[in-house]
Write a structure and sequence with these properties.
With about 375 residues, the protein is an alpha+beta fold. The chain contains 14 helices and 17 strands. It catalyses: (R)-pantothenate + ATP = (R)-4'-phosphopantothenate + ADP + H(+).
């Protein structure tokens, strides 16, 4: 049925429920689903069974199959989007399971609902034909960086159920005193956005319509998981992080003090700084004593330090002092967040602040959802 204009008594010009936004990345598919809570009696009467079935399935489960997960703790309650009140749900599953998702849509007669399916990310192009042939669904493709910025600014503008969306780490170098603190991002510009997914893209954002991709790196979350899988035999991102949390990267890395016997004072390099990632692994005796946990930690530190270093150089070049890190690499990854927070603060001598957002990996999907009116 039609939603927005029907309530106003106009002819039907807006898109039918269900409302989705999809971000199909290289590793994960992220889904933003809007569940209306202001359905009128007339609308409920007209609602077809397949729509009821989809809504019930998505909102009454926290897991879908063996790999799909709804991040219940991120649900945004009682939002108004396109003049409709509802809850915004966040769902993710591995990209390699996308054909199963498309088949599920077919089984639930998704194509009969005549809904608009807005998608972003590389997979919106790669899997477009699968959506059409398997699910009889037409994708409306949106640019992923446009969606990222639009989704980020929108989520930051609405209250996270009364909590702060944006935060930073105070005393990041001190495990005893380190704590997560809210940060007011009401005036967000200018902002450097570092999006860490399978790879990394860095954007400078000066207004909602004025932003550019500054640079990026192929060494991202996919690199971390790929190398961990090779070197430790881990099977998942969560397992890789668990191993890293128990390891000591200095058993694999060569530090400044390993070369200088202490600090390199002339150029301000402390002895604890990494001089060569995995540099100790050239020695047979070191290879024999290093653990899988140490290797996982060293991979995490290598990838994170590299991203932090590039982000710092971009911030200096763009003359921006607030750097917000987003993307699913940071999901349940407090280790990397604290490392980024400390590194940015230390190497910039306190000039740069690392910021983080609660909905870290879902901004692209939300931006795609917000693109619905363009295709109605």
């Amino acid at each position: 049925f039609c939603s927005l204009t029907k309530l106003m008594g106009n002819s039907c010009t807006f898109t039918a429920f269900p409302w989705f936004g999809m971000d199909i990345g290289g590793t994960l598919v992220k889904l933003a689903y809007f569940e209306p809570i202001d359905i009128t009696a007339e609308e409920e009467q007209e609602e077809v069974e397949s729509l009821k079935s989809i809504r019930k399935y998505l909102t009454s489960n926290v897991a879908y199959g063996s790999t799909g997960i709804r991040d219940v703790h991120l649900e945004l309650k009682d939002l108004t989007i396109f003049a409709r009140r509802g809850n915004l749900h966040f769902i993710r599953f591995p990209t390699h399971d996308l054909p199963t998702f498309i088949q599920m849509g077919r089984n639930k007669n998704f194509s009969t609902l005549h809904t608009v399916l807005c998608a972003t990310g590389g997979g919106a192009y790669k899997f477009e034909e699968d959506f059409r042939t398997i699910g009889n669904l037409q994708l409306h493709k949106l640019d992923e960086l446009d969606c990222l910025v639009k989704g980020l600014l929108y989520i930051d503008s609405v209250s996270f159920n009364g909590q702060a969306e944006c935060y930073y780490f105070e005393n990041a170098s001190d495990p005893e005193r380190c704590q997560k603190m809210p940060f007011n991002l009401d005036d967000p510009y200018p902002l450097l956005v570092v999006n860490i997914g399978s790879g990394v893209s860095i954007l400078s954002v000066h207004s909602k319509d004025n932003y550019k991709r500054v640079t990026g790196t192929s060494l991202g979350g996919g690199t971390f998981l790929g190398l961990c899988s090779l070197l430790t035999g881990c099977e998942s991102f969560e397992e890789a992080l668990e191993m890293a949390s128990k390891g000591d990267s200095t058993h694999a890395d060569k530090l400044v003090r390993d070369i200088y016997g202490g600090d390199y004072e002339r150029f301000g390099l402390p002895g604890w700084a990494v001089a060569s990632s995995f540099g100790n692994m050239i020695y047979k005796e070191k290879r024999e004593t290093v653990s899988k946990e140490d290797l996982a930690r060293a991979i995490l530190v290598t990838i994170t330090n590299n991203i932090g270093s590039i982000a710092r150089m971009c911030a200096v070049n763009e003359k921006i002092n607030r750097v917000v890190f987003v993307g699913n690499f940071l999901r349940v990854n407090t280790l990397s967040m604290k490392l980024l927070a400390y590194a940015l603060d230390y190497w910039s001598k306190g000039q740069l602040k690392a910021l983080f957002l609660e909905h870290e990996g879902y901004f692209g999907a939300v931006g795609a959802l917000l693109g619905l009116p363009n295709f109605s």
